[in-house]
Amino acid sequence: MRYANITGWGKCLPPAILSNDDLATLLDTNDEWITTRTGMKERRISHVPVSSLATVAAARALACAGKQATDVELIIFGSTTFDEMCPNAASNVQKQLGAANAACMDVNTACTSGMYALTVATAMIKSGVVNNAIVIGAEVISTVMDWSNRNVAVLFGDGAGAFYLQADAQECGVIAESLGCYGESREILAVNGWGLKEAKNAVINNQLHWAFEGQEIFKKAVSGMDQACQKVLAKSEINADQIDLVVPHQANLRIIDTLAKRLKLPRDKVFINIQRYGNMSAATAPVALVEAIEEGRVKPNSLVLMPAFGGGLTWSAHLLRW
Ligand code: ACO
């Protein structure tokens, strides 16, 4: 049996910080509302393209794994805010890293993109198509933000996280996952004007309009992640109390708390960094896992559960053996 061990990890958070107080100078909002409704205090804003953030995170993951760029056989880039639709963004990372031997593909499932990318890479390693892969979740959501809409502008930030995966004979890496999508509700979270269906120059002309039904998304986020976690636990015959750490998508602290209650898991088993970065969409779960590792929260042999949720409305849960 082959597994896909995560032997390297890295992140890239842009240095520019946008605090709740900064947002209150642009919008009719305040630190108290944002903190109590979401748990967010600040987020990062990138001044470079998403591929540049991704390349730095990937280079750090490679260095962490002790590998050369030419060793890499596959790069999968998860995002919603690609610099261009053609050529793909993974090929840009390949070029910037000098990873000339890597196959390259992009995955877009909104906030779950980094986790869906992890599934694809793990499956390709397990099946023997490749022996290793770089998986990236990166986003510059600030580029498609409607900065006049307080319902969404306060919730998001930019960043990138990356992993190096290596084939292994021991049980490790992703040992079970569950993926799904509430396609019938896809319109309740959408960036209208972003894509070929809409007016071509909507971005340039600042005509992006976010559809965002916060309370409906909240409910679907909880039920989607709960359902995914239950499926993963049942599939792997593991009880929730055997989980050492939950590293969830960070869209709202109240969503995380509600999910933890449903899973009957105490707060000290849940990793939270939403206060520093807000929701970085595809980068959120990867960066959270990188920081959980850096902070010593993921110990050898730990069982880590990673539920995520995003536009689509896609949902997922991954169970990792560390
Ligand atoms: N500052 C101040 N007031 C605000 C702001 C703001 N930034 N945004 C909204 N309000 C107001 C509203 O206008 C409303 O005012 P009204 O009562 O006069 O109409 C009031 O605050 C309450 O609004 P609600 O929508 O009821 O607030 P709620 O408690 O539901 O919180 C929130 C809103 C934070 C968006 C919440 O619904 C949520 O987190 N939903 C899920 C978000 C999510 O999951 N996003 C990402 C998922 S997918 C992905 O990651 C891409």
Automatic annotation (TrEMBL):
Catalyzes the condensation reaction of fatty acid synthesis by the addition to an acyl acceptor of two carbons from malonyl-ACP. Catalyzes the first condensation reaction which initiates fatty acid synthesis and may therefore play a role in governing the total rate of fatty acid production. Possesses both acetoacetyl-ACP synthase and acetyl transacylase activities. Its substrate specificity determines the biosynthesis of branched-chain and/or straight-chain of fatty acids. Residues 233-322 form the Beta-ketoacyl-[acyl-carrier-protein] synthase III C-terminal domain. One of its GO terms (molecular function) is 3-oxoacyl-[acyl-carrier-protein] synthase activity. Transmembrane segments: none annotated. Residues 105-183 form the Beta-ketoacyl-[acyl-carrier-protein] synthase III N-terminal domain. The active site is at 111, 249, 279. InterPro entries: ACP_syn_III_C, ACP_syn_III_N, FabH, Thiolase-like. The keyword Nucleotide-binding does not apply. Pfam families: ACP_syn_III (PF08545), ACP_syn_III_C (PF08541). This is Beta-ketoacyl-[acyl-carrier-protein] synthase III. GO terms for cellular component: cytoplasm. Its main location: cytoplasm. It catalyses: malonyl-[ACP] + acetyl-CoA + H(+) = 3-oxobutanoyl-[ACP] + CO2 + CoA. It is found in: Cytoplasm. Pathway: Lipid metabolism; fatty acid biosynthesis.
